[in-house]
Every structure is written in structure tokens, then in C-alpha cells.
Amino acid sequence: MSESNTEESSSQVNSGVAKAGGIMVASLLMSRVLGIVRDMIITHEFGINGQTDAYRYAFMLPDLLFFLISGGALSSAFIPVFSEYWHTDRRKDAWKVFSGVMCIVSVFLVIFVTLCGIFADPLYRSVLARGISDKSLIPEIVGLSRILLPAQFAFFLGGLMMGTLYARKVFTIPGLGPNIYNIGIIFGALVLSKFVSPAISGLCWGAAGGAVVGNLVIPYLGIRKLGMEFHPGFNHQHEGVKKVFKLMLPVILGLSLPGVFAMIMLAFGSYFTLGTNTILDLSNKLMQAPLGIFGQSLAIAVFPVLTQFYAQQRMDLFKNQLDRTLRTVLYLTIPTSVLLAILAPQISSGLYLSDKVTAAQTQQIAICLQIFCVGIWAWCLHPVLMRAFYSIQDTKTPIIIGTGTTVVFVGLLLTLMRTPLDYKALPLAGSIAPILMVVVMCAVVAKKLDGFDYTAMISTFGKSLAGSIGVAIVSGAVAWTPLSNRMWGHKFVTLGVTAITFCAAMWAYYYITKWLQMPETEYMDRVMKRFDRSKSKVA
């Protein structure tokens, strides 16, 4: 292939990734906004107490199943294999892999869900919520968890269908799932909770309904319209099916930090006063907003492209695309971290302060969020690096690194909790551990790909920090002026002011980084061009 053709192909792929990234950013942005609204409603209806802690504990068992099967293991193993068959003109085989994996894993999922439901009580008492001071909450936690467990079928079947859509570079339909899931929980809080006992179980019924509609029904309708072949049977002898399970095994056996992070936080948080886990979860969800909007969206968008390049053995384009995506993530997340850290007190009080949530509790949320902000950039780089490994069909290495980081994370927790930091030890350990994990992953992926542009990464990091001075000035002007104290009193005003401040701060950041001649500003240029075109069509 000639150099000009390669450059043209790379340009087309970058444009495609940007478009896919834009779709995922929009859908995940909506999901994060709905998630914040969801948490606002939950705290307004139920406050911050032992009962809201119980609601969060109830997700531990279902989330573990999701991580092992429907989430990390499935996406890491199935999508690269399906993509390999799809992009090498073996589409009949691709659908055979889809069918075989669906039938086999469904059987195991029935067994696991049943066992988790039966043994939920001893699991929570002896392991998952061992430190909880009020043991009378355990039966309620178990009951809520049993409502959520069957929803894992929707996540698994829907996740498999979404995987085929991602491999075919269809992103809009999968983007609806998280939004409908959040709407289900909101409906549960506002409506279903009035008709069930305990009232907080309405949230779990809403979550289960949202999972079925958003993650099963809609993907099925989408994949059926685009074309789907299903071959019932346990086709375990097919080479592609065997490859999927071979790739899944390290993920299932490993305890990579991102998959178990929330569960470990909940388990250690149980040793503090009731309500602490709700505070940690609320601050963690705010921290995850940039992770979802930038880190996960760009990782999802670039994954099919990387798997295609690997299947076609075009490793020069693979490395170029990975490098551009990592630098774009840094460019977007560093200023966002600065903004969140400065506005944390105003955001937390504006969103959650109510008759049932005290000012002291919102201050605790703000402190945890500020500590989490230290590691946001690392959390956002991680999903892209993971998919780089998965694209070359290496699930073992990132899981070994992630499991090692989990051990470090637990060690940090055990050490820091003995200091006067108290509950603040948890978000601090949660910022240090991902930074260590990402540094190691970068070093290993560089070796596997025979080179890594560290100079460009460090340059992007340093210039992004320099550009974030503008973000600090704009957000500080909003946060620390007398006028701002009058603006943060209402929840939806807070969301509006935060959005306006974010836009103003990012404009300042964009022009500073443009002056610094950062190539990553091209991402913002493309976004603005698409906005201008949309505006022209409307006019």
C-alpha cells in the first residue's frame, strides 16, 4: 500500500472513530446526566442512611456476575472474535460463534443466578457486608439483591447482541441501553416505591425493568432489523466458540481493579458509620461522569477499528490510532478533572442538599470527589488500553496487571485506613491504584506493539495541564464569587450553571491549547464543524 493511500485510509478511519466517538459521547453524556438526576431523586426521596447503603449493597452480587460474564469477560472475548470473522468475509461463522456462546453461557448463567439467590444471605453476612454495624439490614439487602439477580439475563443476552452491533460499527442502538436503565430506576423511585414494601425495593424493580427494556428488547429489535442469524445448539466444537471461552477464562479468573473496585469500596466502607457508602458512591458516580463520557465512549468507538486493523495485520495504523485516542482522552479529561475539583462543594450541595440530606453530608461528598479527581485521567485511559490488549486477543496480560493492582489497592486501603484520614482513605487509594495500573499497562503495551510514543503522551499531558489554568480561572471565578453563592441553591439551576461553566472553561482551554499548537485540538475542530453543519441544516 502506498504512503498516500495509507494516509488517506488513516484519515478516513480517524473520521469514523470521531463520528462513533461523538455518538457514544452523546449517549453516555445523556446517561450520566440521567444518572445524576437519578441520584438526586433517590437522595431527595430516601436521604443518606443505612437504607440507602442497603440499596447499594444489593448490587454487589449482580454486579459481580455482570463483571464476570455480561461485562468484562464477554466484551473482551466475544467482540474481537466476532469482528475477526466478520471483517474477513466469514459472516456465517460469525453468527455461529454468536449462537454457540449465547446458548452455552445462558446455561451457566441460570446456574450462577440460582446459586447466588440461594446463598445470598451467608455471602453478605460473611464476606460482602461483613463490617456493617446494623446486621438487621442484611435480610433487606438479600431481598433487594434477589430482585436484581434475574436481570443479569437481560444484560448478558443484550450485551451479546450489542457486541455484534459494535463489531459492525453500529453505536446508536447500544447507546440507548444505559439511558433506559436509568429511567427505569427513576420510575421506580417516583412511582413503584409508593406501591411496594420496603419502599426502596421500588428502585430495584425499576432497575430490573429498565435492564429488560434497554438492554434486551431494544437491541433485539435493532439486530433483527439489521439482520441476525441464530443457530440453536451448543456448538462448542466450533473454533471461534472455543477461542471466545479461551479468551474469557483469564478475565473470569482474574480480579481486575475496575471490575471489583466498587465492590471492594463497599466492603471496606461497611466498617464506617451508616451512610458512608452512600456518600462514597455518590462521589464516585460524579467522578465516573468524565470516565463514561470520554474514556468509555472513545474506547467503545475505537475498539472495532483496532480489532479490524489487527485482523487485517495493519499494525502501523493500529499503533497510530491507539496513540491518537490515548492523547485525545488525556486532552479531554485533565481539564474536566480540574473543573470538577474546584466546583465539587457547589455541585454536591446543589445536587444533593435537601430536607433529608445535611450540609455536612454534602461536604463529605465534595471532599471525596476532590480526592477522586486526582486519578480521573488514569481511570479514563484504562478502558482504551484494555481494548488495545483485547484487540490483539490478549486477555491474560491486562487481567494480570489489573489483578496485581487490586492487591495493591487492598494494601493501600488497609494501610491508609489506619491513619487519621478515616473514610477519605478509600477515595485516595482509589486514585493512586489506577495511576499505577495505567503506567504499567502503557509500558507493557509498548513492548507488545514494538514501540510507544511516550514523548507525545508526556507532551499532551504537560500542555493539557498548562491549558487547564484557563479552566481553573473560569471555574474559580464562578465558584468563589459572592454571586455564585446565590446561584447554587437549586438543583436544576446547579446543573445549568455547571453546564455553562463547563462550556466557558472548555472554550478557554481550547484556545489556550490551540495557541500551544496541540494536535488534539483537531477533535474539538471536528465537533464544532459538525455543530455548524447541523446548525446550517436547521436554518
Question: Mind explaining what this structure looks like?
Answer:
With 539 residues, this protein is mainly alpha-helical. It folds into 2 domains: 50-273, no CATH class; 275-530, no CATH class. Helix content is 81%, strand content 0%. The protein contains 22 helices and no strands. Helix 4 packs antiparallel against helix 5 (91-118) and helix 5 runs parallel beside helix 11 (239-253). The longest helix is centred in the first third of the chain and has 44 residues, at 3-46. It starts with a helix and ends with a helix. Residues 1-10 have low confidence and may be disordered.
Helix content: over 70%
**Helix count?**
22
- DSSP summary, beta strand count: 0
Which strand-content bin applies to the residues?
Answer: under 5%
The total tally of domains equals: 2
Q: What's the N-to-C terminus distance?
A: 43 Å
Q: Which whole number gives the mean pLDDT?
A: 83
- Contiguous uncertain segments of 5+ residues: 1-10
Structural class: mainly alpha
N to C succession of SSEs: HHHHHHHHHHHHHHHHHHHHHH
- Assembly classification: single chain
Most strands sheet: none
Computed over alpha carbons, the radius of gyration is 23 Å
The global form is globular
